[in-house]
Design a protein that fits this description.
The chain has six helices and no strands. The protein has 129 residues and is mostly helical. The longest helix is centred in the first third of the chain and has 17 residues. The radius of gyration is 14 Å and the shape is globular.
Length: 129
C-alpha cells in the first residue's frame, strides 16, 4: 500500500467530510429504502473472513458500489451526481463506507483515489463553498 496514495485518499475523505455540511438545500434527502441503501444492500460488504482471503473481492464490492452510484454515466441533465443525497442514508453512509473500505488496506489505492476524487468533485459542485 503506497503511503503517498493513502495520504491523498485521506485528504479526499477529509474534504468530503467538510463539504457534506455545506450541501445546498436543493440536494435531496436520501430515503431509508432509497438507491444508496438499495445498492449497499444488494452489494454487501464482505465478512471479515471473506475479506481477509481475497482482496479482489473487496475491490469488486467497492468498485461496483461507486460505479453504480457515482460513475461517469450517473450524471443528471445538469451534470451533477444523480444519486447524491444527504443525511445518514445518503452521502453520510457513503462516507462511512469509503473510510471503512480504505482502512481495510484491501483496495488498489491508485484506482480507488480516482473514484473518491470523482465523488468529492461532484459533492463540491453542490456546496456553499
Amino acid at each position: 500500500m503506497s503511503s503517498a496514495t493513502l495520504h491523498i485518499i485521506h485528504k479526499y475523505v477529509e474534504k468530503l467530510s467538510r463539504l457534506i455540511p455545506l450541501l445546498l438545500g436543493s440536494v435531496p434527502y436520501a430515503e431509508k429504502d432509497g438507491m444508496i441503501q438499495k445498492v449497499f444492500k444488494s452489494i454487501p460488504v464482505l465478512s471479515s473472513l471473506e475479506s481477509s482471503k481475497d482482496s479482489e473481492l473487496h475491490w469488486q464490492v467497492f468498485n461496483q458500489r461507486m460505479d453504480i452510484l457515482f460513475g461517469e454515466n450517473m450524471r443528471n441533465h445538469d451534470g451533477g451526481l444523480f444519486y447524491l443525497q444527504c443525511n445518514p442514508f445518503g452521502i453520510d453512509a457513503v462516507l462511512e463506507y469509503v473510510c471503512t473500505a480504505v482502512e481495510t488496506g484491501k483496495l488498489p489505492l491508485n484506482i480507488a483515489a480516482i473514484k473518491v476524487k470523482w465523488l468529492v468533485d461532484g459533492v463540491e459542485e453542490v456546496t456553499y463553498e
